[in-house]
Amino acid sequence: MIDTTDSAGQGGALYIEVSNEMASDSLSLRFWDHLVSGRMNVTPGVAAKAAGTEGNMFEGSRNFRVFEAAFPPVARRGFFDLSMGGSRLVRQWIYLPGDSLRLRVDHSSGTFLFGGPDAAFYRLQDEVDRIFKEERFNTDPVLFSADREFYRSDSITESLWNRSRTRPENLYVRMQLIGDAEEAWTETLRYISSHGLDHPAFTILHRHRDVLPAPRLALVEAAIKGQILYNGIQKSELAWHAIKQDPAKLAKLRDWVDTFGLATQEISHPLLAQGFYHFALMESHARQIPIEQVYAPLPNPLREEVIAFYILDNFNRMEDRLPEVIAQNLPLVESDWIKRRFYGLLANAAGTFSAEGIYLPDGSKLDPASLQGKTVLIHYWISGCVFCVEEHRRLMAGLSERYSDSDQILILTVNGDANAENWRRSLASGKYASESSLNAWVPRGTGVLKTYSINSYPQKMIVSKEGKILLQSILLMEPEDLIRRLEQDADPMTFLSPTKPTQP
User: Fold this and answer.
1) Structure confidence at residue 152 (pLDDT)
2) Is residue 98 part of a domain?
3) In the beta sheet, which residues pair with residue 473?
4) Model pLDDT for residues 446-503, shown as the tens digit of each residue
5) Can you tell me the distance from the alpha carbon of 127 to that of 117, in angstroms, rounded to the nearest whole number?
6) Cα dihedral sign, 118-124-125-127
7) Which of left, alpha, beta for 484 (phi over 0: left; psi -120 to 50: alpha)?
8) The pLDDT of residue 311
9) Are residues 63 and 183 in the same domain?
10) Which residue of 52, 365, 410, 439 has the fewest CB atoms within a 10 Å radius of its CB?
11) Where are the beta strands (DSSP E) in 96-210?
12) Where are the coiled-coil regions (predicted)?
C-alpha cells in the first residue's frame, strides 16, 4: 500500500505573485480536504479570500501583486483552486501536509514560475495540465447534432465551413459535425485506440522519477489516468445508443478501461471516480445489471469515491429510493467522511422539515408554524437562471394560481441569491414567481439551502402535513404528477369536487 502521508496534519504556506497587468485586490481560493467533484452537492470545499499587497524590489516582487495564504491542515492530501476575477489560475491541484510553495503568475510572459521547497511537485502538475490543454487545443472540435445542416444554413456559416475544409490539416483544426451514435462511436474508437498508458503526460511523469518521491508521483499518475479515462468516457457517452445495442462495442470500451489497472489502483482521484462512475452507469444499463455489480470489484478508496459521487450527485433525483440505495452501498464504504454524509442525507429524509433562515419580503423571518398542517410545495430558484424563468412559465404560475385560496396546500418559492436586493428585483419582474404564492429568500449557502444541499436550480421539495419531506428533486416534473402528489397528501376528499379544475 502506498503511503501518501507527509507530516500528517500540518498546514503549509502559499505565497503567490500576480503581475500587475491582471492583478486585482484579492485572490479567491477553494480548498478541499476530500474531493470527489467540485459540484457543491458532492464535495463543496471551503472558500477563502487572500488580500493583495504591492510587491517590492527587496523581495524580488516589484510590479507584482503579492498574496499570502496557508494550506489548511489535512491528514493525507488536499486539493485547491486559485481564481482571480473571472480567470481560474489553478484547478484542483493536489497539496500535501506541510507543503510550501511560491507561485508567480506572469501575465506578460504567459507563464507560471515555481519556487520554494516543494516547487517540483507543483511544476509537474502544471506541466501535466498544459499537455492536456494542448491536446484539446490541437484536437478537432466535435459537435453532436441530429440536424447537421442547421449549422450550415446561411451563406456566412456555409462559407466558413467550406474554408475550414481547405485549411492544411497539419496546422488547423476543423469542426466535426456528428449526426448519429455510430459516427460518435467512430470518434470514440479513434480516442480509445490511441490513448491510454502511452499518453504523452506519462512521459512528463517519467522525467520526474529522479526528482520527486514515489508517493507524490503516484498522486499525479492517478490524476493523469483520471483525465484520460474521463475524456474517453465523455466521448463514449455520445455513442451510447450504438454501444447499448452492440455488446462488441461495450466489450471494446471495457477492455480500454481495464488497461488502466483500476482493479489494483491504490490511490483515487476525482476524475478517476467520475469517469468510472459514468462508465459503470453505461455498462449497468447495457447489460441490465445493478450498477453496484460494476464498481464493487474496485478497491477502496476509488470504489467508495465512485459511490460517493453516485449518491451525493444524484440524491435529489432518487426520491424515495434514497434510503435503499444508501443501505446497499454502505457496506462498501470505509471512509468516515462519506458515511457521515450518507447518514446526514438519511437524517434529512427521515426528519422533520426545518424552515431555518427563511426571510419574507418585509424582512421578517418565516414563522414555521405557518406551514404546520399544510402540504407545502417549495420551488427553489435563483436570479439569472433561464431554466427557473421557464419553470415558472411552464409549471409554477399555474400551480400558484390553482392553490392560491387553498387552506391545505401552500406554494412557497425560495430564492437563493447572495443578497436580498437581487431577489426583490427579480421578484418584481414577475418572471420568476407569482404574487399568489408565498415568496421568500434564503441567503446563499445558509439555512435550508445548506441543510438540504440546495445548490442546483430550479429544484422542488414537497413537505407533508406532518412536516416530512416527501420529495426533493431537480428532475423536470409534469403538472399532473405534482398535483397528484400534493393532493394525495392533503385531504383527498377536498379535491374530488367536479367543479375543481384538474389542470393548473
Assistant:
1) 79
2) yes
3) 460
4) 999 999 999 999 999 999 999 999 999 998 889 999 999 999 888 766 665 444 444 4
5) 18
6) positive
7) alpha
8) 97
9) no
10) 365
11) 100-106, 111-115, 142-144, 176-178
12) none
* Count of structural domains, the chain: 3
Contacts of 456 (CB under 8 A, 6+ apart): 40, 41, 316, 474
* ∠ CA 490-496-499, rounded to 5°: 125
When mean pLDDT is compared across 165-169, 182-186, 275-279, 374-378, the lowest value belongs to 165-169
5 inside domain:
no
DSSP sequence for 386-428: HHHHHHIIIIIHHHHHHTTT-SSEEEEEEE--SSHHHHHHHHH
Backbone angles phi, psi at 14, to 5 degrees: -130, 115
Question: Is the sign of the CA dihedral 493, 497, 503, 504 positive or negative?
Answer: negative
Give me the half-sphere count of Cα atoms (radius 13 Å) on the Cβ side of residue 275. Answer: 27
Contacts of 154 (CB under 8 A, 6+ apart): none
Let me know whether 105 and 250 are in one domain.
no
Amino acid 11: pLDDT: 63
Does residue 355 lie in a domain region? no
Same structural domain, 287 and 164:
yes
Indicate the average pLDDT of the chain: 91
Please state, in angstroms and rounded to a whole number, the distance separating the CA atoms of residues 414 and 398: 17
> What is the pLDDT, as a whole number, of residue 253?
97
264 burial (CB, 10 Å; 0-12 / 13-18 / 19+) is: exposed
CATH number for the domain harbouring residue 109: 2.60.40
501 located within any domain: no
Q: What is the pLDDT of residue 492?
A: 65
* CA gap 219, 209 in Å, rounded: 13
Which structural domain range is residue 285 located in?
A: 142-149+159-313
Tell me the C-alpha distance between 182 and 22, whole Å: 45
CATH for 461 = 3.40.30.10
Percent over 90 (pLDDT), the chain: 79
